């Protein structure tokens, strides 16, 4: 088996020849990866723009913003979410946008076999906070406290 040196994020998507962006796929894997990436070549400009940000939530949000009014495939969101570091749960990072006062619609379509494809379309954006992770934690805490107050009031206790 012959291994190739390849960029995880290709140059047309903003990838650079940095040790963190290198990987050693075999020839067959490299061919498959390039075919997969080619399916999203028409989004190269939007991917390049979004991939430039540090936080995965901001990368996802900027992609949705760049493609406003379009249904964006979940796979494309996964690519952008993992542009700087691999995200095991880009769906969670996408949901966290709602904690930052962003909103989107979700559409699911049955594909070939049992596969369901998921698409997102931006409805509302908001300014980015200075510290995105801290803003998410603060909003989660605020919502938990509000939910606690609501459930405490619903059972007759104060």
What's the SSE blueprint?
Elements: E1 6-7, E2 22-23, H1 27-38, H2 44-51, H3 56-66, E3 72-73, H4 74-81, H5 90-95, E4 103-110, E5 116-124, H6 132-154
Antiparallel strand pairs: 1-2, 3-5, 4-5
Helix pairs in contact: 2-3, 3-4
Low-confidence stretches: none
Proportion of residues in helical segments: 40-55%
According to DSSP, the number of beta strands is 5
Rounded to an integer in angstroms, the radius of gyration calculated over CA atoms is 19 Å
* Spatial gap, N to C terminus: 69 Å
Shape: globular
Strand-residue proportion: 5-15%
Number of helices: 6
Mean pLDDT value: 90
The assigned CATH architecture of the domain at 39-128 is Orthogonal Bundle
Widest beta sheet: strand line-up: 3-5-4
Q: How would you sum up the major sheet?
A: 3 strands, antiparallel
Structure notes:
This protein has helices spanning 27-38, 44-51, 56-66, 74-81, 90-95, 132-154; strands spanning 6-7, 22-23, 72-73, 103-110, 116-124. With 158 residues, it is α+β, with helices and mostly antiparallel strands. The chain has a domain at 39-128: Winged helix-like DNA-binding domain superfamily/Winged helix DNA-binding domain (Arc Repressor Mutant, subunit A). The strands form two sheets. The chain has a three-stranded antiparallel sheet with strand order 3-5-4. A two-stranded antiparallel sheet has the order 1-2. Helix 2 runs antiparallel to helix 3 (56-66) and helix 3 packs across helix 4. The model has no long low-confidence stretch (mean pLDDT 90).
């Amino acid at each position: 088996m012959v291994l190739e040196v390849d960029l995880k994020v290709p140059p047309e998507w903003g990838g650079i020849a940095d040790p963190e962006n290198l990987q050693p796929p075999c020839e067959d894997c490299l061919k498959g990866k390039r075919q997969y990436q080619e399916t999203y070549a028409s989004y190269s400009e939007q991917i390049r723009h979004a991939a430039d940000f540090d936080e995965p939530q901001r990368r996802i949000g900027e992609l949705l913003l760049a493609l406003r009014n379009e249904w964006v495939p979940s796979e494309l969101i996964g690519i952008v979410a993992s542009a700087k570091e691999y995200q095991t749960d880009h769906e969670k990072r996408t949901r966290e946008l709602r904690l930052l006062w962003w909103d989107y619609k979700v559409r699911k379509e049955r594909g070939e076999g049992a596969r369901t494809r998921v698409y997102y379309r931006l409805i509302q954006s908001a300014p980015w906070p200075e510290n995105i992770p801290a803003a998410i934690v603060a909003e989660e805490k605020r919502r938990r406290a509000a939910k606690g107050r609501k459930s405490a009031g619903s059972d007759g206790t104060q």
